Amino acid sequence: MSEAIQRLEYLMACLRDKEFGCSWDKKQTYQSIAPYTLEETYEVIDAIEKADYEHLKEELGDLLFQVIFYAQIAKEEGRFNFDDVVNAIVNKMLRRHPHVFPDADLQRFGEVCHLSEEEISAQWQSIKAQEKAEQAPQGVLDEVPVSMPALMQAVKLQQKAAKFGFDWPEIQPVFAKIREELTELEEAIVAGEQDHVASEMGDVLFAVTNLARHLQVSPDIALQKTNIKFRRRFARIEAFLAAEDRQLTDCSLEELDRYWEQAKSEGL
Asked: I need a labelling partner for 103 at 20 to 30 A (CA). Which of 1, 39, 87, 127 fits?
């Protein structure tokens, strides 16, 4: 293991030291750290979207620290350590890439593979199926974490169901489904039943997510890009108003919309 990783492991052990460690770090658990892990993951994605590679280096370090943190807690409990985590993923990748590492042997890297892409894909699916067969039986959708962000979870659920033919073979019925769900949402709004409105809103989002999946677009990343675009354009509106010594509260919706269109025309 590299000296850098060893230093990081030692630092983590010091932070968790019962006598001299940090009081905050010492009281953390798997559950208490989990929200930070999700936050750090999004910050990594944000740095990638902004092509801010210096920041990406920092954010990847923060994400790695989360892994080290979990591994330290597990080590203290006698469950596993960081080496076990590394060895587990290495073994899995060796097992799943026999076309790169024959007989799952790292030392055999570089040997020529004569399999086609279709054969490699079929081999990959066969290996994953074998891995699942060795695990405890569960429902098709059970392996999708319920704690996964909602849009991402929707995609995963749809992908799992699609493997068993529960999917539209073409895109037009997906548009029809979205229109159907929008109609049902409008009816729920007219009825004024808030619980029903929330339920139908969820159905609309699920249908739109299905469209994104058919288009091979990540709904999370697509929405994040739109969020960034919205931030950019709204900041431009604030800049327009600042130049005129005005506040957002001084403007009507029509004025704000004109500024928005101006920001949009600038390519923001």
From this structure: 1
